[in-house]
Amino acid sequence: MSTPFSEMLDSLTRQRGVRASLIVSESDGLVVDSNLRFGQDGERVAALAASMYRKARLSARAARLGAVAFLQLDAERGRICAVGGRSDLVIVVVADAAANVGLIRMELLKALETLE
Amino acid sequence: MNIAAVEAWVEAPLRRFVDDARARLALLLHPSGQVMAQAGFTREVDVMTACALAAASHATAGELGRRVDGKPFRGLHYAGPDKQLYMAAIETTRGAYVCLTVFDSASSLGLVRIYFDDLQRELSAAAPASEPVAAPALAVDFEADLNRNLAALFGREEPSVTKRPGGVPLS
Amino acid sequence: MADDVRRWSDELARDPSSLVFLQLGEALRRQGQLEVALKIALRGLDRHQMNADAHDLVARIAVDRRDFARAMEEWETVLRIKPAHLGAMKGLGYVCFQQGRFEDAERFLSKAAAGGAGSDVSNALATVRRSSGGMLAPTLPSEAQAEDPQYLFADLLVDAGQTALLLDASGYVMAGVYLDAEGTNVAQDVGAQLSGISDEVLRSARHLDIGDWKAITFETQAAVVAMAPGRDNSLMVVAASRATPLGLLRRLLERCADRAAVWLGVERNGGDRQ
Amino acid sequence: MSLVNYATREITCKIVYYGPGRSGKTTNLHYIYGQVPDDRKGKMVSLATQTDRTLFFDFLPLDLGMISGFTTKFQLYTVPGQVYYQTTRKLVLQGADGVVFVADSQSRQLDENVESFQDLHANLADQGVEARSVPLVIQYNKQDLPPELILSTNELSDALNFRGVPEFSADALHGPGVFETLKSISELVLKRLAGNGATR
Q1: Rounded distance between C-alpha atoms, residue B24 and residue D55, angstroms
Q2: Does A1 map to a domain?
Q3: Is the peptide bond before D176 cis (omega within 30 degrees of 0)?
Q4: How many Å lie between the alpha carbon of D45 and the closest alpha carbon of chain B?
Q5: Residue ranges of the alpha helices (H) in chain A?
Q6: Per-residue confidence (pLDDT) for residue C136, from 0 to 100
Q7: How do residues B53-112 score in pLDDT, each as one tens digit?
Q8: D94, B32 contact by CB (below 8 A)
Q9: Are residue C159 and residue C195 in the same domain, yes or no?
Q10: Distance (Å) from the C-alpha of residue B94 to the closest C-alpha of chain D?
């Protein structure tokens, strides 16, 4: 089924090393739309990534650093990148640890422009 | 967070759930409204009331689901301005329970739901295979205690017997 | 930025006397490619010995390479060529501050401020004055500075907007300093706010089965921030101005984390850092 | 299904006040609520319509105190009496440890009493519960009304109490009979715990 976000998510998931891309509601941590490779638990990623993004956003605001634009978590076996804008929606990408995060970041910022 | 459970096997999974989901309150109850475990409540009477209302709400939602969708709903979510509530059934080998959790902006519906799934799995794994064999709980001569407590409850020295038509035991 | 670097490299290859080496060198410096940047800058300087900006570029690269002596020399040259060069005054102020020469730092920064430099210089000046007038004597010896955990990362921070904090598991500051726009140390507030993120990160990494977390980086309107877990459940936090490339920030994070690891090890083993 | 926590030595029992609409089930709970000291009761919850008819149930948690070394708590529920709340009655009845059937003594309510009593048995059967195994007490309420308006307790007993369970005449509005009814159902429910052990 094609949704208004399909093309954007396809283009994110096409990036080398990307395992999943999702649009997530930041406030309730639920999946709005997703493009997942086999084995990815979209609901889990959505809930945890949204929570992490929200925490970073609120903490940065409390620390008077301004609004968070891009977030990247690096772990031993994977990376999570997220961008959010003015709306409640956050775009999340789960990628391999070795994925080119520079490219993913650019694609995410491009996707955010489309979303807004 | 303060956690109390009627049966010990419930405690660890429930504790993990409230920690992981950053829940403010949690209740595990029988569908009839009897509490199995609670986390975060400070007054026992509040627990009982919450259980009664949760059981009612769960039963209502289940019945509504059966009527409009042919099967009970998976879960129930209410959102207030500050706090939210999520409630769903949990099936174990010991039977079905209802779990109600209250959370605020430190958590989210998505988080609560994923950890709910984990709780379901952990409770299923932890549940003893069979019912414990219960010994008689009360002594046979419990009546004296009961009479004394009821009299105290109603502010009477002795349980009084009134005359007809005002409360005479008929048999 | 990668495109720009390629374009400027091509241009420089076509015309080795082009001033484009200034942009190329600066871009490479920001990417953390300090050796290449230095090579380009020195080659440019050979052809443009009286160009103040070329000396300024070499000085900035030297600071990144912790070569403060070379940076001083280059910025002093800049001021001989172009006495009103604000970048050189700021740079000299910064180097003097790092070396504990607060009076000199104040003199350079005051000149820069009088010359019309922006709010970052005013902030830096406030910091210097606070340091010299407050807990630190103007001629504080470097050993004493090294004893103060506030200055644990001072020599690793290369731009005025950069800051580093080491937090314990409860979010309390163990080392480092975080100055706000007014020059006030808000390390404890910022640390407490940012440390909460690590709980979230820990949980996400655990439940998404991606192994232990190594770092988290985020860009905000005002800054770029990177954090990494350290020994004894500590948290290393570095922040820099928004213009700082993420790659450079990560390098800074690694250096500070290494420093913190050594310091924590020493602290645990009886506090003897000699 | 009494809940017995052997670790903390606590017993919790669920008692349901059943009966036709306006027979005085909620009034029983209100009277109890008014008599019991604050430290022995929780807030009374009434899920009622705008006209104060019970919509879902009334609920009153009571702390009976220590009985045979167990802290004993009762949860008193009422069901909505009106015929069309059948589903709700079933839900509230679920897991009841004891039932108080509150009959309306007015002559014109006899059919409603009988119908509601049958409804109780049908609902218990639906839940796979043998009605005779559930502790039951019958209360003939409103016996304070003028004799020409009500049936005598003997007449009501003939119509309803074919099982010969404990029965009480009452005036729930003013109190007579309320305490005796509660005491009787408490005894029956606890007797099961003393004799049969806990069901759970």
Answers
A1: 30
A2: no
A3: no
A4: 8
A5: 6-13, 42-62, 101-115
A6: 31
A7: 888 888 888 888 888 888 888 789 999 999 999 999 998 888 889 999 999 988 999 999
A8: yes
A9: yes
A10: 11
Domain count, chain D: 1
C203 in B contact zone (CB under 8 Å) = yes
Number of domains in chain A: 1
A102 within a domain of the structure (yes/no): yes
A-proximal residues of B, 100-119, CB under 8 Å = 107-111, 113-114
Q: Which domain holds residue D61?
A: 3-194
Q: A38-54: per-residue pLDDT in tens?
A: 788 899 999 999 999 99
Whether B108 and A43 lie within 8 Å, measured CB to CB? no
Domain boundary residue, one of C83, C102, C133 = C133
Q: What would the two tokens of residue D10 be?
A: 């606590």
CATH of the domain at A97: 3.30.450.30
Q: Does residue C215 lie in a domain region?
A: yes
State whether C107 and C179 are in the same domain.
no
Model ipTM?
0.69
Structure tokens at C121: 């210089």
A10 within some domain = yes
Chain A residues closer than 8 Å to C213 by CB: 73-76
Residue from C203, C204, C206, C209 whose CB has the most chain B CBs within 10 Å, to mutate: C203
Q: Among C52, C179, C77, which residue's Cα sits nearest to residue C123?
A: C179
Q: Which of A10, B55, B52, C60 is nearest to D29 (CA)?
A: B52
Claim to verify: residue C119 and residue C7 sit in the same structural domain: yes
**Closest alpha carbon to B85 in B130, B118, B60, B50:** B50
Taking CA atoms, C162 is separated from C119, C143, C247, D114, in Å, by 15, 22, 14, 84
For residue A65, the surrounding DSSP H or E stretch is: none
Cβ-based contacts under 8 A for chains A and C: 106
Which of 46-85 (D) contact B at CB < 8 A? 47, 56-57, 59, 61-70, 72-73, 75, 77
Mark whether C124 and C22 lie in a shared domain: yes
- For residue range C204-260, list pLDDT tens digits in order: 998 988 999 999 999 988 789 999 999 888 999 998 888 788 888 999 999 999 999
CB-CB neighbors (< 8 A) of C254 in chain A: none
Indicate whether C274 belongs to any domain.
Answer: no
- Please check whether residue D200 lies inside any domain of the structure: no
Model pTM? 0.68
- Provide the pLDDT confidence category of residue C56 given band limits of 50, 70 and 90: very high
- From the list D10, D12, D176, the residue facing B167 with the nearest CB is D176
Q: Is A116 in the C-facing interface, judged by CB distances under 8 Å?
A: no
DSSP-derived secondary structure for chain B: --EEESSGGGHHHHHHHHHHHT-SEEEEE-TTS-EEEEES-S-HHHHHHHHHHHHHHHHHHHHHHHHHHSS--SEEEEE-SS-EEEEEEEEETTEEEEEEEEE-TTS-HHHHHHHHHHHHHHHHHHS-SS---PPP-S-TTTHHHHHHHHHHHTT-SS---PPTTSS-B--
> Could you tell me if A34 and A21 are in contact, meaning their C-beta atoms sit under 8 angstroms apart?
yes
The answer to whether C156 and C68 have CB atoms below 8 angstroms apart is no
Residue D7 sits in a domain of what CATH number? 3.40.50.300
Rounded CA gap, A94 and C131, in Å?
A: 45
Neighbours of chain D (3+ CB pairs under 8 A): B
Residue D110's pLDDT is 95
Full residue range of the structural domain in which residue C190 is found: 144-268
Q: Is C207 on the interface with B (CB under 8 A)?
A: yes
What sign does the CA torsion over B151, B155, B158, B164 have? negative
Domain that holds residue A74: 6-115
- The one-character DSSP state at B44 is H
Q: Taking the CA of residue B88 as centre, how many other CA atoms within 13 Å lie in the half-sphere pointing to its CB? A: 17
What single-letter DSSP state applies at residue B162? P
**Set of chain C residues whose Cβ sits within 8 Å of the Cβ of B114:** 207
Distance CA C184, CA D125 (A): 75
